[in-house]
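Bug #77: duplicate submission created two jobs. Keeping one. Sequence:
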Amino acid sequence: MYIMARQSISLTKPNEEWLKNQVNLQEYSSKSEIVNDLIRQARNQQIEIDWLKNKLERAENSGFTNLSKEEIRNQSKSISNG
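Kept job's structure:
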């Protein structure tokens, strides 16, 4: 069971409208649920980014490739985009 901490945040009008719309469409039961989900997604994305950065640094430092981080990143993006 999670203990919820109450927070007060300010939102731009477009973001507030988007949150309201998601609740009205019953995609989420509350704005808090949406914010928690977005934060969870951002945390997971950061874990993946950190893993990739670490992998790139280890590969670059191993001398196995002469490609820069940017070149490896671009190749990775082109492969994942098909």
